[in-house]
Amino acid sequence: MKSFLIVLACVLSQTLAVAQVDTTQRVAPNRKNSPEQQQKPYVILISADGFRYDYADKYQAKNLLALREQGVQAESMVPAFPTKTFPNHYSIVTGLYPAHHGLVNNYFYDPQRKESYSMRERSKVEDGRWYGGTPLWVLAEQQQMLSASFFWVGSEAPIQGILPTYHYQYSEVMPMEKRIQTVVDWLNLPEERRPHLITFYLPEVDHAGHRYGPDAPETKQAVQELDTHMKQLTDAVATTGLPVNFIFVSDHGMLHIDTENTLPLPAAIDTAKFMVSGGGMVVELHAKNKKAIRSTYRQLKEEATKYQVYRKKNMPRHLRYGKKDDRYGRIGDILLLSDAPKVFHFSSRKPSPGTHGYDACQVKEMHATFYAWGPAFRKGVKVPTFENVEVYPLIAKLLGLTFDHKIDGKGKLLKEVL
Ligand code: AMP
Ligand code: ZN
Ligand code: ZN
Question: What residue ranges define each of the domains in the chain, with the CATH number in brackets?
Answer without folding.
Answer: 25-96+133-256+361-417 (3.40.720.10), 274-352 (3.30.1360.180)
